[in-house]
Amino acid sequence: MTYNFNMNPIPLEHRPNTDKHSTRDEDNNGLRFTVDLYCNIYREELDIRPKVSSLLSRLVNYTNITQGAKEHEEEESAEASRRKTPKSPNMGTLMGVYLPCLQNIFGVILFLRLTWIVGMAGIIQSLLIVLMCCSCTMLTAISMSAIATNGVVPAGGAYFMISRSLGPEFGGAVGLCFYLGTTFASAMYILGAIEIFLKYLVPQAAIFHASDHHGTDSAMLNNMRVYGSICLSLMAVVVFVGVKYVNKLASLFLACVIISIVSIYAGAIKSMTHPPEFPICMLGNRTLVRDRFDVCAKTVIKGNITVPSELWESFCSPGNMSSAQCDEYFIQNNVTEIQGIPGLSSGIIRENMWSDYMPKGEILEKAGLQSVDSHWSMETFSMYVSADIATSFTLLVGIFFPSATGIMAGSNRSGDLRDAQKSIPVGTILAITTTSLVYLTSVVLFGACIEGVVLRDKFGDAVNKNLVVGTLSWPSPWVIVIGSFFSTVGAGLQSLTGAPRLLQAIAKDNIIPFLRVFGHGKPNGEPTWALLLTGLIAELGILIASLDMVAPILSMFFLMCYLFVNLACAVQTLLRTPNWRPRFKYYHWALSFLGMSMCLALMFISSWYYAIVAMGIAGMIYKYIEYQGAEKEWGDGIRGLSLSAARYALLRLEVGPPHTKNWRPQLLVLLKLDEDLHVKYPRLLTFASQLKAGKGLTIVGSVIQGNFLDSYGEMQAAEQAIKNMMEIERVKGFCQVVVASKVREGIVHLIQSCGLGGMKHNTVVMGWPYGWRQSEDPRAWKTFINTVRCTTAAHLALMVPKNVSFYPSNHERFTDGNIDVWWIVHDGGMLMLLPFLLKQHKVWRKCRMRIFTVAQMDDNSIQMKKDLATFLYQLRIEAEVEVVEMHDSDISAYTYERTLMMEQRSQMLRQMRLSSAERQREVYRHSLVRMGSLYSDEEEEVIETPPEKVQMTWTREKVEAERRNKNNAPENFRELISLKPDQSNVRRMHTAVKLNEVIVNRSHDARLVLLNMPGPPRNTDGDENYMEFLEVLTEGLERVLLVRGGGREVITIYS
Description:
By secondary structure, this protein is of the alpha/beta class. Among the domains are: about 660-800, Rossmann fold, CATH 3.40.50.620; about 815-925 and about 980-1050, Rossmann fold, CATH 3.40.50. The strands form four sheets. A ten-stranded mixed beta sheet has the order 10-9-8-11-12-17-16-13-14-15, with helices on both faces. It has a three-stranded antiparallel beta sheet with strand order 4-3-7, with no helix packed on it. A two-stranded antiparallel sheet has the order 1-2.
C-alpha cells in the first residue's frame, strides 16, 4: 500500500496500487486493499524469523526418530530428506505401553524364586518386600510420567529423559548404568532359561555331574556356564540377523506369561476343593529328596516278605535288616508322608506367616512334626533337601527387585506411540498396578496353598524335581514350565535387542569419546559393534552362573537409574523453570524425593558393597565426561540448579564484604590485543592461573576502540580469541570485552562494572607499558597511570608484572631459587599473601620465600628482625627474614644527571606538543589507527580540526610571524641546556637509585621479586617523572611484580 503525505488527500479511487503484494477488489464502495503483514510491516523480519504458519506446520509434522538414530535437535541432512518418509506412529496405550510393560516386568523371578522368597521370608515380610519394590517403581513411574509429558520425548527412554533433564554428565553416567543393567538383565534371563531347561525340562542334558554331594553346586554352575554361553551366542545371532523377528515373537512370549499366571490362579482356586497330589517324604521332621527312592517307607512287602526299601539302602550298609549298620537318625525317627499342596482351605497360611531364614547347608525341617535329635552321618546329607545359600531379608530384596523393573518399556517405545504424552503415564501406571496386585496376591496364594518346606525348596527336590510354582498350576505343571521357559527366552531377546540401541544412542550423543565407535553399525542403523560389546558384558554375567548373584547386580544399576529419574523430576519441579509444564499433573517434588530415598535405601539394603561399586562406576563416568568437557547444552535442570545456587550464593555474599580470613585475590586481568585480535602478552594469563590455582574468580577483560554497532563482530572475535587462550593457559574464569570510543574509558568501565554482586574483582592485573620512553605519543603511559589512579580510587589492589615475557610457563618447574619480597610499606599483607599463593602451584612450589624490609638510621634493625620473624610465625608463613639498613649518603653525580635527563626530556616533549603543526600531524597520523589497545593508543582528548589553508602569497603579518618562530627556537634550546632539575625530583631519584642498588645486590638471582609500587603523584604534571622513577626502581631485575594494596587487611594472625 502506498502513502501520500501531501496536505491535500488524494481521493480513494485515484490512489495507485503500487505494492505488488496488495490486491484490489472492486465492490459497490470502490476499492478494497488486502493487508499483508509480512510484506508491508514485518518485511525485514522474514529473513531471520519464520512465519507463524510455517512454524506450526513444522511442529505438527514432527516425527519421533527411532532409538539410536540422529538426535532430534540436529537438522536432517539432505540425504536423509531424500529417504522414504517413515510411517506415522499409530500405537495406542494398550499395545504400545501397557502390554510391553507387563512383558518386561513379569519375568523369571516370579516363576523361579517367588515361592522360595515366600518360604524364607514368610508372608508378612514377603508382602513388605513386594510393597517396597513396587512402591519404588510406582513413585519412579510418576516422576517419569511428568518428565515424559513435558514436551516431545524422542525414542531413547530413560537415558534421553535423564540426560536432557540433568545434563550430559549425569545423563552419560546414568545412561551407562541403565545400559549395564539391561545387559545384565539379559544374562539373568538366559540363566533363568537354562535353569528351567536343565532342572525341569531336560535334566539328562547336563554335561557335568557331581561325584559326591559336595560337587553338586559346582557341576550345576559349570553346566549353566556352558549352556548359557551357547544360548547367548544363539540369541546374539538372532538379534544380529533380524530384530523384526524378535519384535514379531514378542506377542507370543507375552501370551506365554499371561497363560502361566492364569494357570497359577486357576490352580489356587481348584486347590480349595481338589488339591493336587504332590506328597512329600519326611524323615522325622526333615525333608527328603524325593527322586532318590521309589517308596516313602523304610520297608516294602514283596510276596509276603518284608524287605528293605531303596530309602533303607540309602541310609544303611548292605546286608540283612537285622545286622545292617544304619544312620542313627534314620533308626530313631519315623518316615512320614505329608501333602505338598494342602490347598487354599487347609489353614497352612498360619504356619507360613513368619520368616524362616537359614544358613547355607541347613536341612529343611517342618516345625510341627516329631523328631528325635540324634547323631547322623554326613554321608547321607545328599538325601536331605538343604539350603544352597544363606538367606536374609536384605538378600531377598536384592533378588526380588528385578521382577519390579521394566517400567521403562513404554517410554522406550515413545517413537511408535500415537499420543505418547497420554499413553506413557496411563499405560505405565496401570501396568505397575497390575503387576503389583499379581505379586501381592501371589505371595498370599503361595503361602495359603503350599507347604512351608516346599516353599523353601528352591529347586523342587521335595516334589520330585518339579518346579514348585508348577505344582500349584492347573491343568498341568508343564504349563508353567514351558510358559516360563519361553517367557524368559523372550525377555532375554528383548534385553539383547534394547541394550545395544541404548549404547548406540549414548555413543551418538558423543559425550563419552571412547564409546564413539559403538555409534556405528550396519547401513540400516543396526548397532553391530554395540551388540558385540553387549554380548561380551552379558557373558560376564553368564560366567557368574548364579541367578541369585546376578540379580543384585542388576538391581543396583536399575535402582541407580530410577534414583536419577526421581532426582530429575524433583530438580525440575523445585526450580520451576519456565519450560517445566508437564501434562501429567499428579506429581509432586516430595513424591520424587521419597522415590529417590527409597531407591537409595534399597540399594544399600540389597547389597551395600554392590551399591558402592555401582555408585563408584557412575561417579567415574561423571568425572570423565566432566573432565573431557562435554560440549552439550541441553537446557538441563542441573544448569538451572547451578543458576539458582549461584543466585542464592550471590545474594548471601551481598550481605557484606568478606572477612579477612576469606579474602583471596579475585582478579581482573587487563589484556592487550594486537591488530589481528591475538593476545599480545599471554604470560599474563599464565601468571593469573599460577596465582589462582583454579580457586576464586578470574575475569579477563580487554577494550576495543570504536563504535559498538560497527565493532560487534570484532568484539565477539576478540572474546573467542581470549577464551581460546584462557583454555590453553588453563585459566578458569570469565571473559569480558568492551567497545569504547577511547581505551581509557573502556578500562574504567571494566574496573567499575565487571563482576556481579559479591563476586566482584578486588585485584587488577595489568602489563607494563613497554617502550614508553621511545614513543613520542604520551598516551602509552598516561593510560597506565590513569588505570593506577582508578584502582586506587576504587580501593582495589593492583599487580603489575614487569618483564612478563620472562615469567615461567605452566610446564616449567623451578627446582630451587627464591621468591624475594621487599616490604617497604604496609599494604594490608598483600606482599605476604601472594608468594604463599604462588607456592601452591607446582611451578613455584620448590622456591623459598625471603622477606626483606628496610631500616633507616633511626630504626632498631635488630628488634625489627625479631618482630618480623614473630609476625611471620603467627601468620604461619615460612620465610627467611632480613633487615636491610639504608644509610644517608650524598647525592651522586649519576643521580643528578639522571634527574636532569628526565626533566630535559619532559620539557622537550612538552614544547613539541605545543607546536600547532606537530599537533595536526599527530591527529592525522592517529586517525589512521583502527584498533584500540590498552597502553599504547589514544587517550588524549584530541579535537580534530581541519588543517589550516596554505597561504600562496606572503603578507606582512605572515613574514613577521615566521621571523618570530625562527628567533624563538634557539631560545628554547638554550632553556633546555640551562635547565636545573627540581630538588624534590632529585631526592626521589636518589631514593629510587639507592633502593634499586640494594635490591639488585640482594635479589639479582631471585626467581621473582615482589615490591611495593609507589603511588602516582597527586599533580598530573609529574606523571612522566613517576614512570621514570618506576623504571629506575626496577632496573637490573629479571622478573618484578609491582604490588599495590587495596586499602584493607588481607591476612590475619587469627584462626
